[in-house]
Amino acid sequence: MQEGAASVFGLEPGAAEVRVRRGAMLQISGISANLTVREHLELFRAYYPAPLPTARLLSMAGLEDLARRRYGKLSGGQKQRVMFALALAGDPELLFLDEPTTGLDVDARHRLWSEIRALRESGRTTVLTTHNLDEADALADRVVVIHKGRRIAEGTPAEIKSRTAGRLVRCVTPIGPDEVASMSGVVEARSRGQHLEVLTTQPEALVRELLGRDVGLADLTVVSAGLEEAFLALTRDGKEGGR
Question: Would you tell me which CATH number, out of the four given (3.30.70.100, 3.30.160.270, 3.10.20.880, 3.40.430.10), belongs to the domain 165-225?
Fold first, then answer.
């Protein structure tokens, strides 16, 4: 059993002063399907003493062309963008985002990333919950890795990635992960689509070995290990830190 206490702005999290200074984007909306996007924004703005203008909210979430559409007629990705705009309605100092880019296409995702970066640069604090580790790497100043309900690592993205020595080798080859796993220096091997991905501490030796076994090897890349590789290494080894 775990116990503890939390305060926000030095106050109880549920205090009225806290509620008007923070925003939250949840995966479950519970809002009316019959109101239009603009009507929802104007309703939420009425809850706050100094809300952002409706036009600004529409722009930040890329909803200008959907302002008159009923919420129930939107696609999943469009509804996600509405929830982002609603979270920003009160011009919050503290923003909680739960899987904010789920269901978004590439353009909408990068637009949302740009807005989150702008919020950070303006001095706002954003708490981002995500399973997309590329997203965490792109947006976060500080990352907390949680595995099975326990914190196992904490630090900047660079600090977390430094916990994993090695490089990621990616290529197209009929050689399977099981065969590669026995090679010297291999930490992790997996198939992803048509590609073989291998985390290794000896990338040059691995590439020579792969080319020796498969002269037709194609689409070869060697890059630094990312957050995903660090997460896999941390959870596999059962390491715990950041306490």
Answer: 3.30.70.100
